[in-house]
Amino acid sequence: MDKNLLSFQSKFNPEDFALATDDEKKSLVVMRESVGFWKDGMRRLRKNKVAMVSLFVIILVMIFSFIVPSFYPYDYKTQIRGSENLRPMTYSAQEQARIDAGEKVFPHIFGTDKLGRDYAIRVMMGSRISLLVGLIATAIILVIGSVYGSIAAFFGGWVDLIMMRIVDIIYTVPDVLLIVLLSFALKQPLKNLTEVPGFHWIQTVGTNLISIFIVFALLYWVGMARMVRSQILMLKQSEYVTAARALGAKNSRIIKKHLLTNCIGTLIVTTTLQIPSSIFTESFLSFLGLGVAVPLPSLGSLASDAINGLNTYPYLLFVPALLISLIILSFNLLGDGLRDAFDPKLKA
User: Fold this and answer.
1) How far apart are CA 60 and CA 50, in angstroms?
2) Which of these, 24, 55, 191, 343, could form a disulfide with 20 (CB 3.0-4.6 Å)?
């Protein structure tokens, strides 16, 4: 548009009012690609380098624990005579003689323990047990806590009051004392149960580990229940919940399909942060002798066995202790990354 400054009259160019072409329209469109909740969360997670490194470390530890033992030449319970208390990457006199005779002998990467068992395979099996206990215990906590907390929040009133007072009472129960009592109380019944076909695995893992799982199911879900309750209290006032009630949906369907589904991101983050807590609890109890049955190892029991020879064989303690620290740190950092990626309140 041309403008004559002297006459203050505007001169219009008809070409300025021509219809825009398709290419010109497309050049003016600036729109972000439509992404869903999970795709957007994973995109944000991949940008978090610390979380991705932690995830990579966890994958390496799982490969070390679940895959490598399948083709490792030593067994976690086999005692090799003459190979007691070997230092890392060393051989016993008998193994050295076999090497001199031309035979190939795989080295003891982390040495051996006082009974001549290869320590590397015991660390692998110990990390496997610790990871399995952490994952299974966390699954138990997730199921019980999410169901309990959602029911308390959804119905509210006196139902919520009674259920939350039960949670407060459970918080006061000493978990270690309960595990000790259950270990003695369940020892004979579980021993009789091992004679039933299909339950021989109980003798392998021991009654202490069964007691740990029972205590997790009885006590450790209360934190998850409170978290789920706080989320459901906010979500149950939403319009889609009101619409579902108006359409005649059952309470169980509303809780399962609408409420728990909409707080799945928070559940994933809380579950990820619960795994290292469960692993640490199992390692601590195994350190006290309340873990898996001998000769099955866990990282806590390996550290407990090595504490007596700390001055002579310190590496026997450092290896499981460092692995416990690495696993717990990696899960914590991954949980922080998941929280930053999937928590709507933290999105920029």
Assistant:
1) 15
2) 24
Q: What is the pLDDT of residues 50-66, one digit of tens each?
A: 999 999 999 999 999 99
Instruction: Report the C-alpha gap between 170 and 295 in whole angstroms.
Output: 33
Whether the ω angle into residue 314 lies within 30 degrees of 0, i.e. cis, is no
CA atoms of 91 and 105, how far apart (whole Å): 9
Contact predicate 210/290, CB 8 Å: no
The span from the CA of 201 to the CA of 193, in Å, is 10
Question: Residues near 332 by Cβ (< 8 Å), separated by ≥ 6?
Answer: 273, 276
Q: Are 68 and 109 contacting, i.e. CB atoms less than 8 angstroms apart?
A: no
Mean pLDDT of 185-195: 73
pLDDT at 29: 63
Asked if 235 and 170 touch (Cβ cutoff 8 Å), the reply is no
Residue listed under structure tokens 């021989």: 200
Q: What is the DSSP letter of 3?
A: E
- Residue from 307, 314, 302, 303 nearest 87 by CA: 314
Digit-coded pLDDT (tens) for 317-329: 899 999 999 999 9
Cα–Cα–Cα angle for 66, 71, 74, nearest 5°?
100
The number of CA neighbours under 13 Å toward the Cβ of 304 is 18
Segments in the chain forming alpha helices (H):
22-28, 37-47, 49-62, 93-100, 119-155, 157-171, 175-185, 187-193, 201-205, 207-218, 222-235, 239-246, 251-253, 260-262, 264-287, 299-306, 315-342
Which helix (H) or strand (E) segment holds residue 9: the answer is strand 9-11
Say what the pLDDT of residue 8 is: 47
SS3 267: helix
Question: Do 298 and 282 contact (CB within 8 A), yes or no?
Answer: yes
pLDDT of residue 15: 67
In contact, 113 and 305? CB cutoff 8 Å: yes
Reference 148, options 229, 217, 214, 213; nearest CA is 229
Q: Is 196 helix (H, G, I), strand (E, B) or coil?
A: coil
* 345 contacts 231 by C-beta, under 8 angstroms: no
- Assign residue 89 a region (left: φ > 0; alpha: ψ between -120 and 50; beta: otherwise): left
